[in-house]
Write a structure and sequence with these properties.
mainly beta, binds FE2/S2 (inorganic) cluster, Rieske Iron-sulfur Protein, four-stranded antiparallel sheet, three-stranded antiparallel sheet
Length: about 120
């Protein structure tokens, strides 16, 4: 059974800015998209269990700062898997090597609810 937890006032989330919040010990990335929609994913890459707080966001595409795997921040879907190492684009054979045998996986997503100027997340 999910629980609704108050995380902040909506005004603390500028449009397009990736924010890291901690909800009961779980690190979560939250973004407010143009148009006002909010999306949230667990702040832990599916490739290696590392924080993606330093990642970049282009529309709804979240890029991991470590090996540039890409995810849709609203659906959690993996869009591309292990693309770069130290900023250098990897050829196909080395992508598999750096992936350490792991197959592409989605991120865990969380519903975000806006109500009366406040933002809630469901865990
Ligand atoms: S830790 Fe995110 S792509 Fe490797």
């Amino acid at each position: 059974m999910s629980r609704r937890i108050l995380i902040s006032s909506v005004e603390n989330f500028p449009v397009g800015e990736l924010k890291t919040i901690n909800v009961e010990g779980t690190s979560i990335l939250v973004v407010r998209l143009a148009g006002g929609r909010f999306c949230a994913v667990r702040n832990r890459c599916a490739h290696l269990p590392l924080s993606m707080s330093g990642g970049t966001l282009d529309g709804t595409t979240l890029t991991c700062p470590w090996h540039s795997s890409q995810y849709d921040i609203c659906t959690g879907e993996n869009l591309d898997w292990v693309r770069k190492l130290a900023g250098v684009k990897l050829p196909g054979w080395s992508r598999k090597l750096i992936a350490l045998g792991k197959q592409p996986q989605p991120l865990t997503t969380y519903p975000v609810i806006e109500e009366d100027g406040d933002l809630y997340i469901e865990l």
